[in-house]
Amino acid sequence: MKKRIFIGLLVFGAVSFSIKAGDCISGNCVNGQGIMNFANGDKYIGEFKTERKSGYGVYHFINGDRYEGDFKDDYPDGHGKAFLANGNFYEGEFKNNFPNGKGTMRYHNGNVYVGEWKQGLKDGFGSMTYENGSKYVGEWRNGKKHGQGNYTQSTVVSNGEIKKPQKSSETRATAEKKSTPFWTGTK
Known about the structure:
Elements: H1 2-16, E1 22-27, E2 32-38, E3 43-49, E4 52-60, E5 66-72, E6 75-83, E7 89-95, E8 98-106, E9 112-118, E10 121-129, E11 135-141, E12 144-152, E13 156-158, E14 161-163, H2 172-178
Antiparallel strand pairs: 1-2, 2-3, 3-4, 4-5, 5-6, 6-7, 7-8, 8-9, 9-10, 10-11, 11-12, 13-14
């Protein structure tokens, strides 16, 4: 639910963010540096160009999420960092509001994805290292493993003896649900 609120604020709210949408409490929120508070409790500190968030800025969401990085025409665009209240952290390229290009997502459960993104979903070449030490390196499409890839299952060493790790009680589908993309793409 928090992700959907965050997505909605960025996707739909950014379209209406302007001087009329918030109160400039400090600085120059038309062309320069300023601080703007929004009616919903969000706050933006950063650069403005023609009344839009443009340049470097920090956007604080009322739900605890935070984006730090480049903006263009009110949207995250360029290099940035996104901190989710649930503990997920993304750093990399953004385009028109979504992780797009190369980036790294560190999930709160210990999984780490390093690779290509398209409209907020893992798409292209990347590697996912799971909290249990297993790793998938290969192709992704629309947030899922797709095409060529190599999955390496971790092993456990006990008293010098190599043992297979015990199977988790979770199914693959359940495990993947915990590793959802930072944003859900619209296309």
